[in-house]
Automatic annotation (TrEMBL):
Pfam families: ABC_membrane, ABC_tran. It is a multi-pass membrane protein. It comes from Anabas testudineus. This is Mitochondrial potassium channel ATP-binding subunit. SMART domains: AAA. The lineage of its organism: Eukaryota, Metazoa, Chordata, Craniata, Vertebrata.
Length: 479
């Protein structure tokens, strides 16, 4: 009876609130209207503007609605029964603490699952990119990708189970709160400290809190997944290169002589600081001369080329270009205009021959591309293809032979007309005939340039002005 006479349940008027001066009634009404407003905005956003509003904004609106509902209902709860509300306030932090604990475990699981997905994708990429090697070793049946995907599947299942347990537990906990409220409220009613109507109002308001908290817990599950995926992206975005991409001095083209001095260079790769690859290495590349480095495998020859290209900076010592420390020069200018680099395994892009050669100088005209191809002994074989320079080379150049790929790589390096040419075992992967053709192209390309040749074969270094033998990270003989 008393409950039915309570103002909040009497109904009447447009707002359903007959006693507009009753603070409890007003509070319920304001909270209801606010929740409806936010809900309507959110629904309208979903239905009419979902393509315009980013998902995080929609999620924020949903979160905002749940949070305001929770706060509003808590105020109402306090107005109805401070004692019962106090009890809820004591229990709730314990639940929130337990939720935060489970949440941190879930975040860790989610991060591990994301890393495993990335690993599985990497394996698939490698297996597909190196399909010939996979076939050559009859490894098609070895389910490398399946293994990684199974692991990823297992991890995601664990994560899903974790989120399910989290959501299940939070629902059980919230229902327990309702049961506890009825129990505690019943005790208060029997002691005449509370009316049945108050208890019913309390329950209605606490169920709204329950619904809001349940939707917050779902949002939290989505947030856990989102944050760990985003964290990996932001981790990469926030990486700063140790060697800047650009910035620094440039030597005007007409004053550039092309003398390179390696002075007392010591170097260890950052991933293996314990292994010193170069030890007080000294070498001079005189302008317009060809210097060849030979030596045992793993002796550090390619590392010398990598340091000249500024892929790494030496641990100690200085590399000079025309008497200037290359660390003071603009790396993008050095790589794009001064040094032409041709390595053992030329990597081509899955576009046309024309675009691959033009990669060396994006603004080059078709005539310049053809000229570079002629210098690299590539023009004849390119024009023998039905599509000529528009022939697509396939992913990483798989539709070309080793010698053809190498000559396109030479043309790509020559088109920028570099002052310094670095050839890192450029012909070592070729048979005798292909090597002869490529060598011819290289002999032509090296004229009038400072050249560093890293070689295994005698034929490659025959024309060199200086031959240096490298062992154990330093030059041991010069002839
Ligand atoms: N990115 C890297 N990280 C760590 N160590 C590396 C890296 N690259 C090469 N090394 C190590 O540095 C040493 C020198 O390698 P480098 O490639 O310079 O030798 P190389 O003389 O060119 O050999 P090869 O004639 O066989 O090509 C080797 O012991 C190699 O294992």
């Amino acid at each position: 009876d008393e409950w039915l006479h309570y103002p909040a349940f009497k109904g009447g008027g447009e707002s359903g609130c007959r006693h507009e001066k009753d603070p409890f009634c007003m509070l319920i009404e304001v909270q209801k209207q606010w929740a409806t407003l936010v809900f309507n905005i959110q629904s309208a956003a979903y239905e009419d503007f979902s393509c315009l509003i980013p998902n995080p904004v929609l999620a924020c609106l949903q979160g905002l609605r749940s949070i305001t509902q929770t706060v509003g209902c808590f105020v109402s709860l306090y107005v109805i029964s401070p004692k019962l509300t106090g009890l809820t306030v004591v229990v709730l932090p314990c639940l929130v603490g337990a939720g935060a604990l489970i949440g941190s475990v879930l975040r860790r699981l989610s991060r591990l699952a994301q890393e495993q997905v990335a690993k599985a994708t990497g394996v698939a990429d490698e297996a597909l990119g190196n399909v010939r090697t996979v076939k050559a070793f009859a490894m098609e049946e070895r389910e490398l990708y399946a293994l990684e995907v199974d692991k990823s599947c297992e991890m995601n299942e664990n994560l899903g189970a974790g989120i399910a347990v989290f959501q299940g537990l939070s629902n059980i906990a919230l229902n327990c709160i309702v049961l506890g409220t009825i129990f505690a409220g019943g005790t208060l009613i029997s002691n005449n400290e509370m009316s049945p109507g108050d208890l019913m109002s309390f329950l209605v308001a606490s169920q709204t809190v329950q619904r809001s908290l349940a939707s917050i817990s779902i949002l939290f599950g989505q947030m856990v997944r989102g944050i760990s995926s985003g964290a990996r992206v932001f981790e990469y975005l926030s990486l700063e290169p140790t060697i800047p991409l650009s910035g620094g001095g440039r030597i005007p083209y007409h004053s550039l002589i092309g003398r390179v001095d390696f002075m007392d260079i010591s170097f260890s790769y950052p991933t293996r600081p314990g292994q010193q690859v170069l030890k007080r290495f000294n070498l001079t590349l005189p302008p317009c001369k060809t210097v060849a480095i030979v030596g045992e495998s793993g002796g550090g020859k390619s590392t010398v080329a990598a340091l000249l290209e500024r892929f790494y900076d030496p641990t100690s010592g200085v590399i000079m270009l025309d008497g200037l420390d290359i660390r003071t020069l603009d790396p993008s200018w050095l790589r794009a205009q001064v040094i032409g680099f041709i390595n053992q395994e030329p990597v081509l892009f899955g576009s046309s021959i024309m675009e691959n050669i033009r990669f060396g100088k994006p603004e080059a005209t078709d005539a310049e591309v053809i000229n570079a191809a002629e210098q690299a002994n590539a023009h004849r074989f390119i024009t023998s293809f039905p599509d000529g320079y528009n022939t697509m080379v396939g992913e990483r150049g798989v539709t070309l032979s080793g010698g053809q790929k190498q000559r396109i790589a030479i043309a790509r390096a020559l088109i920028k007309n570099p002052n310094i040419l670095v050839l890192d075992e450029a012909t070592s992967a070729l048979d005798a005939e292909s090597e002869r053709v490529v060598q011819e192209a290289l002999d032509r390309a090296t004229r009038g340039r400072t050249v560093l040749i890293i070689a295994h074969r005698l034929s490659t270094i025959q024309g060199a002005d200086l031959i240096c033998v490298m062992s154990n990270g330093r030059i041991v003989e010069v002839s």
